[in-house]
Amino acid sequence: MILQWKVVGIFSYPVTDKPDFSSLLTEIDRILAKVISSLVNPQEVTSETIIATRQQLESARALLSPLLLPDPTPEVARWSLGMEVQPEGVKVVFFRESQGLIDFYPLSWSLATGTSDRLPCPQVDEYLISWLSNRDFSTDSWLWEALERLEAIIITDDGETPTDDLKKALLTAQLIPPDRLSSLETAIATALAHIPTSDQPQPQTLLVIEGKRETTTLAIVEVPPQTRSLSRQAIALSHFNYGENTYERAILSHLIYPLWRSFLPLSRSALTDTNPLKKSLLAAARLTKLILQEESEFTSSLAGHTWTVSRTDLNKKVIIPYIDNLRQKVNDLLEKQQKSLEDIDRIIFSGNFFLTIWPYFLTEIQQEFAGCHLEAPSQENFSPTILGLGRLCLFLALRGEKVNNA
Fold first, then answer.
1. How far apart, in whole angstroms, are the C-alpha atoms of residue 130 and residue 124?
2. Model confidence over 77-90: pLDDT tens digits?
């Protein structure tokens, strides 16, 4: 609604002559390009406001262009298809780009469990082909245009979730030639969601910290003055083994097991992934994580034994060691790029790991990265990853190049 209100406000100004008319149309394009295309604050933008704002702009053009441009050249929109791959499923979104403005067309699916915006990975082939075969193009004119003008399909790559079967399914569907199917690292997609694409020079250096299930990815992105000329040579990636699952195992190892070891029948080394008891203990660790996000401590009992865990213990034995490790990995990457933390304009946190522990993690993060501008992980339906996939078409230099893995 914020975007719609702004557009209505612009159109409410009276126009008395042709030069002012032209100036107004230029101002409309400039503001909307800045608000929508830049997506500096993606959490404030929804699919509804984007599409509604785009429709208002097109309506204004239809009315004003005949007066300003007697023989306008029809503009052909560019379409792409983005797929955000996560363990719980694949989110599928069509993107329509025209003059730097991007519309989002998310798909939903009727599954046995109900309607969902995510498609189970093993069923992509079945559902996608069935969906295309049974679609009523007469009522979905945008889809006909999208498939006719589809230029690329981009799949996210988080380094953990397999995508080979998904790629085979897409090639089987024959939506595009094989050379137009590509992958984009989720950390890079997240960065693209935060980079403005206006004509004004806006150089900056971003640090993306992406927490996943088993790993944390770091990405340093040196945005050039002409932001759309960003290339993969300006991006450095690194990874280290620590994620949400690691965090829960650390709670088990450092908080729960020491309290339970007097009555557990196993040593810590015996708690392997094949041991059925470990599943129960990890469930207890997961519950401990959730409770300590709300309470300073809690007490429970097991087999007649009472045990207490506090947030202070969690911070001291689990969170602070992880943040120390994170800071060291950040310093290592900065050193390889001959930079310091003071050179970073923004630190962007993303990924499900940080979503599950934010804002309870925030105090320690702020202390460790004091003085830095921090971006919290987004909880919107359109994640920064989806927004970045849609905006990839604005950064042509990023396609077909290898990223600098530090």
1. 10
2. 899 999 999 888 89
**pTM value > 0.90:** no
DSSP annotation of 37 reads: I
Residues 117 and 107: beta-carbon distance below 8 Å? yes
Tens digit of each residue's pLDDT (9 = 90 or more) over 171-186: 887 888 999 999 999 9
Amino acid at 91: K
Mean pLDDT score across all residues of the chain: 80
Burial 335-372 (b: 16+ CB within 10 A, else e): eebebeeeebebbbbbbbbbbbbbebbeebbeeebeee
Name the amino acid, one letter, at 261.
Answer: R
Instruction: Say what the pLDDT of residue 303 is.
Output: 66
C-alpha distances (whole Å) from 274 to each of 270, 277, 394 are 9, 9, 47
DSSP letter, residue 224? -
- Tell me the pLDDT tens digit for each residue of 152-173: 999 999 999 888 888 888 888 7
Question: What is the C-alpha to C-alpha distance for residues 379 and 104, in angstroms, rounded to an integer?
Answer: 17
How far apart CA 361 and CA 365 sit, in angstroms, is 6
First to last CA, the chain: 42
Query: Is residue 96 over pLDDT 90?
Result: yes
Among 166, 237, 175, 241, residue whose Cα is nearest residue 208: 237
Rounded to whole angstroms, how far apart are CA atoms 193 and 102?
A: 12
* CA R_g for the chain: 25
Query: Could you tell me which residues come within 8 angstroms of residue 49 by beta carbon, excluding any fewer than 6 positions away?
Result: 1, 2, 3, 4
What percent of the chain shows pLDDT beyond 90? 36
270 forms bridges with which residues in the sheet? Answer: none
Three-state DSSP state, 94: strand
Residue whose C-alpha is closest to residue 351's, from 382, 396, 384: 384
Beta strands in 129-214 (DSSP E): 150-157, 181-185, 204-211
Model confidence at 16, pLDDT cuts 50, 70, 90, reads: very low
